[in-house]
Every structure is written in C-alpha cells, then in structure tokens.
Amino acid sequence: MKENYNNSPHYSHSSSPKYKKSTNHEQEETSNLVQTCSIAYHGEEQIRNIILGKEPVTAVVNTGNSVSLVREDISRKIIDRSKLSQNRIVLSGIGGSKVSTKGSFQQDFTVDEDEYCLTWHIDTKLPS
C-alpha cells in the first residue's frame, strides 16, 4: 500500500510498533516549502535497505533531519535530469557550514514492504 504524504500534514502508521511515520511542511530560509518524512526506528539499527524508485539503496534513517537527501550518482539512476525540479535549498550544518542542493524530485520508495512518496533533494557532497 502506497502512502502519499503530499496531502496529509501528519500521519501515524500503527501496523508495526517499531515505526512511527510522519510528515511536516516547513518554510526554509530560502522561502522554499520542503516536505519531510521521518521513519523512527525504536532500536539501534539506523541503516536500512530501501527501494528508491526501482533501485535498491542503502539508506541512513535519521529522524532528526528536516529534509531527505540523495547522492547525485544515485539520483541519476532514478530520474531523468530534465524532470528535476529546480527547487534548490541551502542546508546549514554544525559550525555554520552551508551546502546548496542541486535540485529535487518526488519519488516513491519502499521500506519493509511499505511504500511511500517523498521529495528527495540532491546533495553533491554526500559521501559514497
């Protein structure tokens, strides 16, 4: 079953006691509306195997992040460059460092056989 978070400001999924899924809409400094989704795992494991589009990907699940990031090389396997949104945001890190994303796209992903739809922002500086 696919959960589309675009029309729902908050969602809790109770089929598994290990997960809490929610979305928020936040206004960023750059005046871009950013959709976020959190998958909170109540345990030690934070690295998950997911299917992003049709690509198997190892993902770091971090519920403290306000945006979902994807490496540029992974995004090239998933979406044609012409379909990228030019919605670029500036991310601020600890110590005041800033990184600008290269664009964004909306894409389904699957984790533990549950399907979701989320906006992914392309980060050219994520490590391999």
Describe the structure.
Mean pLDDT is 71; it is low at 1-45. The protein is globular and about 40 Å long. Strands 1, 4, 5, 6, 9 and 10 form a six-stranded mixed sheet that branches. A two-stranded antiparallel sheet has the order 2-3. It has a domain at 46-123: Cathepsin D, subunit A, domain 1 (Beta Barrel). Helices cover 5% and strands 48% of the residues. It is mainly beta and 128 residues long. The protein starts with a strand and ends in a 5-residue tail after the last strand.
Question: Which features characterize this protein?
Answer:
128 residues; mainly beta; Cathepsin D, subunit A, domain 1; six-stranded mixed beta sheet; two-stranded antiparallel sheet; 1 helix; 10 strands; disordered N terminus; Peptidase A2 domain-containing protein
Topology:
Layout: E1 2-4, E2 19-27, E3 33-41, E4 47-52, E5 55-60, E6 68-71, H1 72-78, E7 90-92, E8 98-100, E9 104-111, E10 114-123
Parallel strand pairs: 1-10, 6-10
Antiparallel strand pairs: 2-3, 4-5, 4-9, 7-8, 9-10
Instruction: Please tell me what the overall shape is.
Output: globular
Q: Detail the poorly predicted runs.
A: 1-45
CATH superfamily of the domain at 46-123: Acid Proteases
CATH class bucket of the domain at 46-123 = Mainly Beta
Supply the CATH architecture of the domain at 46-123: Beta Barrel
Distance between the termini: 31 Å
Which percent bin holds the helix content? under 10%
Largest sheet, described in full? 6 strands, mixed
DSSP, total strands: 10
Structural class assignment:
mainly beta
Q: Find the CATH topology of the domain at 46-123.
A: Cathepsin D, subunit A, domain 1
- Helix and strand pattern: EEEEEEHEEEE
Please tally the helical runs, counting DSSP H or I stretches of 4 or more residues. 1
Name the beta content range. Answer: over 45%
Overall pLDDT level = 71
Rg from alpha-carbon coordinates: 14 Å
Organism: Araneus ventricosus
Protein name: Peptidase A2 domain-containing protein
Region (Disordered): 1-31
Biased composition (Low complexity): 1-17
